[in-house]
RNA sequence: CGGGGCGUAGCGCAGCCUGGUAGCGCGCCUGGUUUGGGACCAGGAUGUCGAGUGUUCAAAUCACUCCGCCCCGACCA
């Protein structure tokens, strides 16, 4: 396309509210514009990239045997009541009424809709398995949208749903998607990694997240240096340590100590001159209205998700001051396991500790020389903490590493959570009625693009990998007022169009510097510069955006040269 | 939901404290000179100062209310 006719508003200045580099560059490159908090428009350049990604996704999904559908964004309350999520989903679910006062929501995801479709039209095992997907706009009323298109309220998502007759089949469906996802992100030219993850409110047995490696990523992950173990930090399992033998003879007499206004681990540690590792932290959690005390070694942090999953609770949060007062009889900062009236959950980190310090459930007092079994009894013993870099791989015991990433895809084994609640059943070979086994598989479209930019940019702008590039080449005549130059450039433009090369012809009457800056900013992989000096010798210049390589080619050969590079780079990503 | 900040030209900002009717840079328009990494000179256009109410002779400026946006936290696929 001719640049002079394009709607491509690039900008020199960084918008004041853009924090992450991908957001800044998407705005400066004229890809997106914000409408309101967490809601963006895609301008032509941005939408071209979106469509490139969508086509890659479609290709891989179809190849994996999934079929594309399109479901409504507006969904009736009744459907969500069937699955139970009308009550459970919380404020992220945007609800509203129509003129007849019927209640609806904007779909944050489509398990309900797809299940309602499938249950009506799939009746027998002969129709299974099936995998249906769509690329569609979702709405989640995020508490705090941020990072531009990375975490917004309205966003494009590819979501697929598989239905199987048995566990074995479900496993296969999951595997297929897992493979397809690897292909998709590889073809996009992204550095990524699948990691084990928590299933969150979608529910289900287990899941993998696809993380694009990026320092600015919102998610922390852990991976093993030796084996293939990789997990989201919130999921990363801390192995149960080998139990040491505990000798009751070593137990010292428990003592109550006056610790005025000493609350935090740090304060206790300083005041009593003990290491944080010798203190046991007692945290009071409220799980769906019931309180639990979680005990953990002083230098560790509790992983609320593990607590939530262990208790199979819908919502878990640290208790408020009033609830702490009620549960322990003391203000915040003095909770302890001795004589507490609520159930005690003990983290692995505490199991081998003897003669430790805890709160005394009494304002301004702590106990020392507390021991498990003698001074209190526990209800459960499990992994409740956040992994640290001191921990070892839970699979093979080797050292682990931490990294940050952006979650661009998530594959879930749902099991029968929705099919059971919504009665998606079929008849098997024996004429027995069975519940379908489901899986669901999502890819954040805009987020993947943003993640791609986070990984591929320099101080001058975006550097598109060929498969995602909105255009493959930009032709830059140095001076549009020089007849020879323009004639040659026009000729190149035509031949490239004839060769189906995606090309921008920068025919604007701008200084060369301006055009170079814009070309770099919008990240076109190849730039062909047509200038008087080289043209005299029948040559044009080809500059590669990603490595800055700059070479002269005869005018007659440049189109084939460009074509070859494009094919090579697209193939490389297959 | 708690804490903080911001809202003035298309964009980035100054002016507000100490009230007197709005300015800078970029961009935009016209003319000229330029023309290989965001040119220069000359001229020009553009603002319900987020909205409302109040105080005042007079409000971008002071007060109150509302709205919007952003940041930190809580929460979250």
The outline comes out as globular
Helical residue percent band? 25-40%
Kindly provide the radius of gyration, computed on alpha-carbon positions and rounded to a whole number of angstroms.
Answer: 29 Å
> How many β strands by DSSP?
31
**Mean pLDDT across all amino acids:** 91
The quaternary structure here is: single chain
Count of discrete alpha- or pi-helical segments spanning 4 or more residues: 15
Taking the alpha carbons of the first and last residues, their distance comes to 27 Å
Main sheet specs: 9 strands, mixed
Low-confidence spans: none
Portion in beta strands: 25-35%
SS content category: alpha+beta
What does this structure look like?
The protein is an alpha+beta fold and 574 residues long. Helices cover 28% and strands 28% of the residues. It has 15 helices and 31 strands. The strands form eight sheets. Strands 3, 7, 8, 9, 10, 11, 12, 21 and 24 form a nine-stranded mixed sheet that branches. Helix 2 (44-63) runs antiparallel to helix 6. The longest helix has 21 residues, at 167-187. The chain binds one RNA strand of 77 nucleotides through residues 9, 11-17, 19, 34, 36-37, 90-92, 108-109, 138, 140, 142-144, 146, 151, 157, 199-202, 209, 317-318, 407, 410, 442, 444, 460, 476, 478-479, 481-482, 510-518, 520, 529, 531-533, 541.
């Amino acid at each position: 396309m001719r640049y002079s006719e394009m709607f491509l508003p690039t900008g020199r200045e960084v918008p004041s509210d853009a924090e992450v580099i991908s957001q800044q560059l998407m705005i400066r490159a004229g890809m997106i514009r914000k409408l309101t908090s967490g809601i963006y428009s895609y301008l032509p350049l941005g939408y071209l990239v979106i469509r490139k990604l969508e086509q890659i996704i479609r290709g891989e999904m179809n190849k994996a045997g999934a079929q594309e559908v399109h479901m409504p964004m507006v969904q009736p309350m009744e459907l969500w009541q069937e699955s139970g999520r009308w009550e459970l989903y919380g404020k992220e679910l945007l609800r509203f009424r129509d003129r007849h006062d019927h209640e609806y929501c904007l779909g944050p995801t489509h398990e309900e809709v797809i299940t309602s479709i499938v249950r009506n039209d799939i009746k027998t095992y002969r129709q299974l398995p099936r995998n249906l997907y769509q690329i569609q706009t979702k709405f989640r009323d995020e508490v705090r949208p941020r990072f531009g298109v990375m975490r917004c309220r309205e966003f494009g998502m590819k979501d697929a749903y598989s239905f199987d007759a048995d566990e074995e089949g479900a496993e296969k469906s999951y595997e297929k998607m897992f493979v397809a996802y690897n292909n998709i992100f590889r073809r996009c030219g992204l550095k990524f990694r699948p990691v084990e993850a928590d299933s969150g409110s979608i529910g289900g047995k287990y899941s993998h997240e696809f993380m694009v490696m990026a320092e600015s990523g919102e998610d922390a992950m852990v991976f093993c240096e030796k084996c293939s173990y990789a997990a989201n930090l919130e999921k990363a399992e801390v192995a149960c340590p080998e139990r040491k033998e505990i000798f009751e003879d070593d137990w010292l007499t428990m003592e109550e100590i006056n610790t005025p206004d000493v609350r935090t681990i740090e304060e206790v540690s300083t005041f009593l001159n003990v290491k944080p590792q010798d203190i046991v932290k007692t945290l009071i959690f409220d799980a769906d209205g019931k309180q639990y005390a979680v005990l953990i070694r002083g230098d560790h942090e509790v992983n609320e998700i593990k607590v939530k999953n262990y208790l199979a609770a819908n919502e878990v949060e640290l208790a408020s001051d009033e609830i702490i007062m009620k549960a322990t009889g003391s203000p915040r900062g003095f909770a302890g396991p001795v004589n507490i009236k609520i159930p005690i959950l003990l983290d692995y980190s505490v199991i081998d500790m003897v003669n430790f310090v805890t709160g005394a459930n009494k304002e301004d007092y702590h106990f020392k020389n507390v021991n498990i079994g003698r001074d209190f009894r526990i209800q459960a013993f499990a992994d409740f903490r956040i992994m640290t870099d001191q921990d070892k791989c839970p699979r093979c015991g080797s050292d682990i590493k931490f990294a940050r990433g952006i979650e661009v895809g998530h594959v879930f084994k749902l099991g029968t959570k929705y099919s059971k609640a919504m009665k998606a059943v079929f008849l098997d070979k024996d004429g027995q009625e069975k519940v379908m086994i489901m899986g669901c598989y999502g890819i954040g479209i805009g987020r993947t693009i943003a993640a791609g930019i986070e990984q591929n940019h320099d101080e001058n702008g975006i550097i598109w990998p060929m498969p995602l590039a909105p255009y493959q080449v930009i032709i830059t005549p140095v001076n549009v007022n020089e007849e020879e130059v323009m004639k040659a450039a026009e000729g190149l433009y035509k031949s490239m169009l004839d060769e189906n090369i995606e090309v921008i012809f920068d025919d604007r009457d701008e200084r060369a510097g301006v055009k170079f800056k814009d070309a770099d900013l919008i990240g076109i992989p190849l730039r062909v510069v047509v200038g008087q000096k080289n043209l005299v010798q029948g040559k044009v210049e080809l500059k590669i955006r990603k490595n800055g390589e700059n070479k002269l080619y005869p005018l007659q050969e440049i189109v084939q040269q460009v074509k070859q590079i494009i094919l090579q780079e697209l193939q490389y990503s297959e």
